[in-house]
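Researcher: Next entry in the queue.
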Amino acid sequence: MNMQHTHNDETAEQPAFSFTNVYQSFGTTQALDGFNLQGQQGRVIGLVGRNGAGKSSAIRCLVGLAKPTSGQVRVFGQSPWHMEPALRQRVGYMSESGVPILGASARDLSAFSASLYPHWDRELEHRMLERFRIDPGKPLKKLSLGQQRTVALMLAICPKPDLLVLDEPAANLDAVMRREFIEVVLTLVAEQGGTVLFSSHILSDVERVADRIAFLDRGRLLLDRDTDELRAGVRRLRLVFTNEAPANFQTPGMVAMRRQGRELLITVEGYQETLVNQLAQSTGAHVEAQGLGLEELFIDLLGSNRVAA
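Model: Structure for this entry, 309 residues:
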């Protein structure tokens, strides 16, 4: 089973999607503020940010539900608002609410969707219904929230799209259900290939699925790196000075700094092992490097200790 279909060479070379200097305003609220992001085909990109960071605004622009105030959005080289029907069929979308028509059953919704999408995967539909113990004849309003969201995911994935867009798909689910839900996405991505844009404010969810992570804050892209590169290149450095730590301290790649008396705690991105000795020699401080999880990097990037770019 493969999400990729046969397209011309020109399409294959294009990114699956791109945002170029995108702005979007609602009255005095700036939802997107010069947002840039490109998603290469075959990648799983996690879009991470606090609630209100602009993730849903970006996704709504991408799937053609909203227009940016300025800038350019493209899906397989075309505008989301003028996509040909054949191209639109290549995009699957699950919204933040992620719950379809509550009065309809999974059977009703899948039958309707299958009539619109020529590549609808009946086998996958049955597997998802069985795994989450969903009665296909029951109205969605009689199912649990997790089952309702599974049906929404099923409707987005069963057409076998080349681009799958998931906006906070596991929001409001308990920890056990969220883990299983993410595992389903991970399994399907591995099976089907294609491109996925997956937004969440819960970084541990994205980390399980994404091979690339983009950090969004107040409508702007803060950082966009391969997940493995982030894991390898992020460290927290502890500098202990003989006297009080300097108030103004700079080093390449520094994204956050916290000062406590004689100590500086700095978070660096793009860490090289030679940095510890370099800093020890240049500052006279005792320097230690500590591993840092992506959750902590996220907090440092978006928190009060962040260093202005």
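Model: Residues 9-218 form a domain with the Rossmann fold fold (CATH 3.40.50.300).
Researcher: Noted, moving on.
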